[in-house]
TrEMBL record:
Biased composition (Basic residues): 14-23
InterPro entries in the cross-refs: Cell_div_FtsL, FtsL/DivIC
Principal location listed in the UniProt entry: membrane
Keywords: Cell cycle, Cell division, Cell membrane, Coiled coil, Membrane, Transmembrane, Transmembrane helix
Job of this protein: Essential cell division protein.
Coiled-coil residue spans: 59-86
Domain of life: Bacteria
Protein name (database record): Cell division protein FtsL
Length: 117
């Protein structure tokens, strides 16, 4: 074989190590407008988050006040009911007659006037 033929044949044989392509990393560059847009979005997102949290705190405080007022109203209703029962007990005919006798008053049936409610 000719010497030239051998050299061409050696070039065509695959080499023992595979060739690897170097991949270039694409560097993404942002324009000034894109940076400002991203920054404004971040600022808006932070503002919205703070605003939502502050509204939730206000709602929590108002609900707490409502519950306290409802509890106060319930206690006042109970106290009013207890006082009404006491008034009913103290205004019985027998009790009034007993207190009148203790104070030295006597029952004159000719002088009694019936008042209807």
């Amino acid at each position: 074989m000719n010497n030239t033929a051998v050299k061409i044949h050696e070039r065509q044989r695959p080499s023992s190590r595979p060739r690897t392509r170097k991949q270039r990393k694409l560097k993404i560059r942002f324009t000034l407008g894109e940076k400002l847009l991203f920054l404004s979005f971040c600022v808006f997102a932070m503002y919205a988050a703070v605003h939502i949290v502050s509204n939730q705190v206000k709602i929590y405080q108002v609900n707490k006040e409502i519950q306290q007022l409802q509890e106060t109203v319930q206690e006042q209703k109970k106290q009013n009911n207890d006082l009404y029962v006491e008034v009913q007990q103290l205004s019985t005919y027998e009790r009034i007659l007993q207190k009148a006798k203790e104070l030295g008053l006597s029952l004159n049936e000719n002088n009694v006037k019936v008042v209807q409610e």
